[in-house]
Predict the structure.
Amino acid sequence: MDKKLRKHCITHLAQFFQKSEGCCILLSFRRKPESGSFKLFRMQDFIVMTITWILISLIFPELWQSPGHAYEKHPVIPVGEEQAKIAELDQQLAHAGEADQSLLLIRRGEAYQSLGYLEEAMKDFRAALDRAKAADQPLASAAAAQSLGYLHFLRGAPDLADSLLRTALEEAKSLDQPLLAVFCANRLGTVLFSQNRSEEAWLLYEEALQYADRADDPGLEAGIRRNMARIISDDTRALSHLSEARKAAEQVALPRERTDLLLGIAAEAQRRETGESGIRLAFDCLTEALSLAGAHGTGRQLSHCAGRLGCLYEKTGQFREAMNLTAQALETARSSDAHDLLLLWEWQQARLLRAQGDSERAVAACRRAVYHIEAIRQDIPITYQDGRSSFTETLSPIYLGLADMLLLSAAKETGEERRQALLREARQAVERIKRSELTDYFRDPCVVALTRGIENLSPSTAVIYPIILPDRLELLLDMDGRLWQKSTAVEQKTLEQTVRLLTAQLRNRQAFEKTAAEVYDWLFRPVASLLEEHQVDTLVFVPDGVFRMFPVASLWDGKRFLAERFAIVTAPGMSLLDPAPLARGEMLSLMAGMSDPGPVIFDLPENFWQSMTRSPESARDLGVRGISVEVEPFEGRAPLPRSAKENPELIRKIRQRLALPGVDAEIRQISGQLHGTVLLNENFQLERFAREIGVQSFQVVHIASHGYFGGKPEQNFIMTYDRRLDMNQLEAMIKPKQLAATPVELIIMSACQTAEGDERSPLGLAGVVLKSGARSALGSLWPVSDLAAQEMLPAFYTHIKEPGVSKAEALRRTQISLMQKKEFRHPFYWSPFILIGNWL
């Protein structure tokens, strides 16, 4: 490489690594600005960048000093400077020779990334890598690889990030470039830590620390030591590393840089249970950071320092000092109309006011926090880690806090009109969380776009809306356009433990009566007299949290099951697809089933093979349909040897374990009841299934095959004879029929299950309705009895054809007929099937 270019490249690497760290964001839907349009750059774009970092730091407070950044740089982004830089780089690239292009592309990619144009940044990094390799520029190639690799990680592709960062690290070491090596090692450590590979991450952080020492940069050392503290489980050792990080930060000359480092160290100290020493370290760091920000920092830094120090005072119960600092943070944030900061400090102020008994002002502050969320909601990129989303983990507590305070106010309100307004506002706040949960689970902002609010309920229908709060369970009962409020004094921890116990008892055919009665007392007894008074016969249950994990039909009042009293439907929120009644008459049906699996077994995820080959078949697997395997514990283990899938005896055992002998009889029975097309075993192949749906207007789609809905949407699938059918494919097949004259009314999955012990899993069943556009779905929460299913499904179709019988009532009658038989009395047999969506 030309010496001049090499020197320029090294100088630039040092500059952009030290100036751009912390400015990365995870997702952006922005498009590339047209040439010459930078003067139109909106403040919303700045908000997108800053709110993302706030969200990340709130989900994981330890990321105030992210392991992915060699040291913390709060996103004080010089927007105008970055715009000008891109314009200048465009001009330079237009006239640059091949030797200069890779470096210019890296610089422009970093500028795009800092402004939130991640697609453009990705293109530039890729182009820079290709050109650097073609021009034999190893240093530029390594720089491009590390930038591209880390951007892949931020966007949820850790495997790609791992490969690129390892390549860049090896190149940096071979070129003896410690500055580049420290960033590559540190970022690779981040990737590994995110995959729970802490030991490997630790070794990389140690390696990064050695390179930082060679680079003689105390800021790098401070950041890496803070990252190492994050991995350590022992609080005393972690505090030692944080103290060393603090000493290194004191040597950083630039006030703004030192401020950000101190904020990161304080965040980690606050996160850990380090006692008085940790609190003192956090206090000292934040006090110094506040002083530095006041003298040399930006308004945003000053707001952050004051707000975070106020948060520390809040946690130690020093409310007066906390209020003063929060007021300072708010005032500074208001001066720049920074909605992203204002929502944080208004929420903090609401908590402080509530703790001091000023409920009216607390509600007002919380409403302002929600206002600021809504002001920028569409500009907030949703970020994910370990299945958790930025909205659900960081902003939903604000909505839930507002609902909590509104419900307390409503309970004290004497005026009926005012009480109804408070209750509706509280329900609306929780509803925003539910809609965001669905959006975040599927990572699809359009998943609830076609829903509409539940309106015009019949006089005999009631909606039960439970809200789980830390100290109590609130019940909102909606009947005849009016809300009733009931409260049960049970702590969240106790409630969740009991519901999980009940779920396990039901799934495993154990004694359940005592636990079911206890949950009934919390969830339904408070409203039982109201339901009886209004002669309610249909319940729309909108579950929250752990209430999704079990069927409420199985609750026991000491004499009867809830299913014996009410027709029950589950709704993911106070919205559903078109609530038009089911069209009567002959319904064209597609009946597909698999009793003996074919090539699909080779299409199953690796962890399913691991589980089925390494875990013995248990007694509870006998006579049930559904993939009754433990999946999650096998993730991350050594891959299954390739030879395993070539072992005839093993293949025979897998096919035997996945066989569904009752499906043949089930399909034979229902094909005599319904008019339509039958696809069984070899005929139930993915292409044939898709083709039939494409050319016919089926109202009922009945699938008798294994299905699995896990805690992550990518785990959800149904088995056809030859391949897996995932939910995106099902959506592509059925959604075009949504607005047809005869849309798909009902999807029935008679051998599906949701993952055990994960309250997010049932969202996958809800997604069958929401994503596919079908009006409703009937699926099971756990593997069902083969004999019970053979009796239950034909009976359901018999009842649904009866005049005036809704889908929910047909399910109730079917369940009652089953529970009246001694061998099927236990709820294990009849209760796992739940109806989701339209119940009419």
User: Anything to note?
Assistant: The first strand starts at residue 384 and ends at 385. Residues 416-442 form the longest helix (27 residues). Residues 1-79, 383-387, 631-638 have pLDDT under 50 and may be disordered.
